[in-house]
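From the shared-data thread, chain only:
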Amino acid sequence: MGWIGMFPGQGSQEPEMGKELLEKYPELLIDIFDESLGWSLSDVINEGDSDLIKKTNIAQPYIFAISYCYGLEAIQKFGNADALITALAISGFFDYVDALKIISVRGEAMQESVENSDTGMAAVLTTDLDATLKEIEVLNSQDIEVWISNYNDASQIVISSSNENLEYLKSNSKALSARRVIPLEVAGAFHTKIVSPAKPKLAEALEQVELKEGTIPVYMNVDADLANIDTLKNRLVNQIDNSVLFYDQILKIESEIKPNEWIHIGPGNVTAGMVKKSISSKEIRVINSLESLSK
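Structure, as tokens:
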């Protein structure tokens, strides 16, 4: 039944990503973006500064705006999806401008929370997820704080901890019963208690936004359930310091909707790889450029 759109999060950004969209969507990416947030996305794109786009307050609005435009392209080509994961703006729960403002506040607050925290994140590749989860429990019982930020698929999670701990685990992956531990290029330990101070600022920003009923079902990655207007604001706030349940989303969507095709929309191709590992029999497409739309 239909197709599923999957939108990437922080960590997928690349220098100059979306440059081809500036001419096609100047109102969204230049005029409205600059007026709404007070800084120039086109300057960031054209400068291609890899260090700048690692900052959460830059990366999150940047990824959102580019993915939003590719999402518009996908809908024009394929029609409405049965569900567009995390695509609340495309679904119509709030408009593009409100989404930009929410993401900007969220990104700024999360960046402030991790400043000077000396924390980071790492992907953990494992052949025995249960064993890896047990090893994390053991570390925490020894007062070595390791948090699970993302459940990506049956063979990969993302952990957060101090940079010292992550460096040790990178060289000693067997301590997690894992094949590899790969540090990620992010500013700190997101989706953990480290960023809990960001929640009140996001809640305040959301109070200024009037929600509307979405036109396309959206599965939330905080609990893998469908978004609804009554609980959406609280769930967006709670998503900040709770694990991202992408693997649960995949399994639930496959169970409830059984889509014919899964489409990664936006920078990179990370969600496509996760689905392929979880549901290998499905057709998977990647839309991360205008050229990829014609394939």
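The chain has a mean pLDDT of 92.
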